[in-house]
Amino acid sequence: MVVNIPEPKLYPSGGVFIKYSPDGGSFAYYPSGRMAAAYEKMGSGFYCYFYADGKAGTTLLAIDPSGEGFCAFPNGSPRLTSRKQGGTYVDESGAIQRLWTTQKPLNPAHPIEFDLSPHLSVKFGSRQQIEAKLTCQGMAEDYQLGEVQKMATDSYLSKSLGMVRMGPERGKHILDIDKCRQAAEANRQRRDAMGMKDVEVAKTTITEDDMKKHPDLRPIVSSTASLKASVGAGDWDVDCFISKQKLIDTLGSTLPTLAMGASLKGDPHSRTFASLPATKPDVLEALIRTSEFDGRPLPLSKSIKAASGRYRPEHGSHYKTPRKKLVELTSRTFDTFLKDDAPNNALVVVCCLAGWLPQCRRTEPLLEMLNGKLQAKDGDKAHNYNQAIDAETNKPKESGPSGMVPTETTPAYLLRKFDMSESRFLQQRYNINTLPMYLMYYGGKLTYASSTLNGFGTSTDDLVAQVRESTKDAQRGVFLPEGFTFGKTSNKTNEDFQATLASTAPILGK
Questions:
Q1: Can you tell me the distance from the alpha carbon of 116 to that of 132, in angstroms, rounded to the nearest whole number?
Q2: For the whole prediction, is pTM greater than 0.70?
Q3: Segments making up each domain of the chain, as ranges
């Protein structure tokens, strides 16, 4: 890339007035030979310095690429200051004449204009609008100072006309073609202002000598030649898709690209095929093809059937959950139910739970599933025994099914719930400090009490196995003693450990 540097500007006397740099900057000189201005590029902008025509060379102006800096009187006192938060303009006595901030900027129609010296004048409107002019012996040079806006001050969302609400493109934004073109033109103007010229692409011609030196170029050239020949023979209908006017005449300008209704806003011409860039015939054919959808509902997939919320299909009144809530006992009905209401030949399992405890919240749904199996209509005889119990009164029904004798393999039992958060009745009776806790009664007597089942398990299978074992123990007359309580617990671990050491020390000493 060859950079063209403008020729220097000369005074009529032959001295150098302006000398340009390759990066777009320049240096200006007074007729006396002293430097008048330095216009140097740094990053995406320019630093500018103006000096007085004297031996001291007082700096009259200093502005950086962001538009921040100052202007001074010939004696060096501040005259104008510019910062990102605002600025001030004062007179020679220091009194503020103009004051502005980011919330209250200067009026663009009334910028601040003043002369720094007989040769320098400045016009200040904002950090982005600063103009300066140097005049000497009839020669003049204009300077554009201040901040140059960045290339991308916005995103594609600012050019969005709307969002697709349905179909496979749902959630995508539709861009306004006109705004995109305007943004590209604005970027081009900014590049010109910053001295960033677009590099022209050099035309390259591949000759026969080049193909001899580089044999890999020969198939590329032959394929390009065959493509040009096919286009010239009319094999490709490219005119219809390149010529905008022919595209409108062929397809019409009233057919929208997407049926968005009121959700699509902006220029109505942006919704037509005239603004749709298409380079393949099958793309347009797929868009203008008449829909074959007959309007019938599509079959639900497994993913949609398994989804929650509004996508879940209506199962109808025939569907019933297998879970059955546990009948809850209270401190008032607890003893009465065990002694009078519960059947003598059935084991009663009281599940002590608390809604605030995560372990109980995980266990209760499993117990409800087991309770649903116990109350199922198609259960075996032992399960049908539980059907003979009224869930509201906890009493046996008058006309229960026959064959209610519990078997060896599947004994009859009832599941009940006691909420430990509502009452301390059982906690004070048995000194319960662990939840969930399972209490099993047979004939009103306690035959099992523990937080683990079947030795060490906690699943529903372990519960059924423990029911079987506890029923056998109760039928043999094995019960827990009256007044049974769990051992006292204490957090005084250190004291217990010291007591253990004190008791074992004499033994170890022997």
A1: 10
A2: no
A3: 9-145, 327-475
